[in-house]
């Protein structure tokens, strides 16, 4: 049997009793990083005096080898007690796991999914945005036209949208949102459940100024729902590229942002 077991995203106290039992009884632990899982088990032994099964086997299973690993599997592998854990959070959510589940479904292998800690849902609730329908985009592409297209979809799908972003590109994301949707409210959560957890509300420009270059940590970005329109519809950047007087551009942009024309014109002057 296969069990997918979530692990804490920061605070070790979020580890459930059921999840601890699953780890200590596993014959084989499939791990996104075996070093991280071994460290977690060491902490559980020390803090909760938990006795783990002897001679447990640890196997590395991460995003780079997941597909090739599963292709070599035989259903008999799951006659043992198999547990998969990612480094932090819920397996299958921006982490490996779904390919394993698909294999079990296709081959009649019994499997179970344990509920637990998850940065996506934690940040969504913490945002306070009352639109309860949401979309999860994970990480955007790093650069290029694909990133621009994905950002347009994230901003204009009509739902509260959640992104993950690395500290190396957080400033870039905030500047992109500030340029495209200057009045849109966003919420940022840093280091959820950890010692330096931090919440930030405001427009992208306001949040950018609050951070003042301090981007270290793991970030979840929640974008408040806006009006929905097709990704092929005209955007502010499309209007700015037109050979028109700035005042005319400002009037056109106000049609899609609902800004005051004078305020929009002043905002566009530096651009």
Notes on the structure:
Helix content is 38%, strand content 17%. By secondary structure, it is of the alpha/beta class. It is built from 11 helices and 10 strands. The chain has helices spanning 17-24, 34-48, 66-71, 98-107, 119-127, 144-155, 170-180, 204-211, 236-240, 246-257, 261-268; strands spanning 2-4, 28-31, 57-60, 82-85, 111-113, 134-139, 160-165, 185-190, 198-203, 219-223. Helix 10 (246-257) packs across helix 11 (261-268). Helix 2 (34-48) links the parallel strand 2 and strand 3 (57-60). The strands form 2 sheets. The chain has a 5-stranded parallel sheet, sandwiched between helices. It folds into 3 domains: 2-113, Tetrapyrrole methylase, N-terminal domain (Cobalt-precorrin-4 Transmethylase, domain 1, 3-Layer(aba) Sandwich); 119-223, Methyltransferase, Cobalt-precorrin-4 Transmethylase, Domain 2 (2-Layer Sandwich), CATH 3.30.950.10; 236-268, no CATH class. It is elongated, with a radius of gyration of 23 Å.
């Amino acid at each position: 049997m296969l069990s997918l077991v979530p692990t804490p995203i920061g605070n070790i106290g979020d580890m459930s009793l059921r999840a601890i039992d699953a780890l200590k009884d596993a014959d084989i632990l499939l791990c996104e990083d075996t070093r991280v899982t071994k460290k977690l088990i060491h902490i559980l032994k020390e803090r909760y005096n938990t006795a783990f099964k002897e001679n447990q086997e640890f196997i590395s299973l991460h995003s780079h080898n997941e597909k090739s690993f599963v292709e070599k599997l035989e259903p008999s592998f799951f006659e043992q007690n198999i547990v998969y854990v990612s480094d932090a959070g819920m397996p299958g959510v921006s982490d490996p796991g779904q390919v394993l589940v698909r294999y079990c479904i296709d081959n009649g292998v019994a499997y179970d999914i344990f509920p637990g800690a998850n940065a996506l849902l934690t940040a969504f609730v913490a945002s306070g945005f009352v639109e309860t329908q949401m979309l999860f985009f994970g990480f955007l592409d790093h650069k290029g036209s694909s990133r621009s297209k994905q950002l347009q979809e994230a901003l204009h799908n009509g739902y509260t949208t959640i992104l993950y972003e690395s500290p190396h590109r957080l400033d870039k994301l905030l500047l992109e949102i500030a340029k495209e949707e200057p009045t849109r409210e966003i919420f940022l959560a840093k280091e959820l459940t950890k010692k330096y957890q931090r919440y930030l509300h405001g427009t992208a420009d306001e949040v950018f100024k609050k951070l003042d270059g301090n981007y270290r940590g793991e970030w979840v970005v929640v974008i408040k729902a806006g009006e929905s329109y097709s990704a092929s519809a005209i955007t502010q950047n499309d209007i700015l590229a037109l050979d028109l007087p700035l005042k005319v551009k400002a009037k056109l942009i106000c049609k899609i942002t609902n800004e005051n024309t004078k305020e929009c014109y002043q905002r566009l002057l530096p651009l």
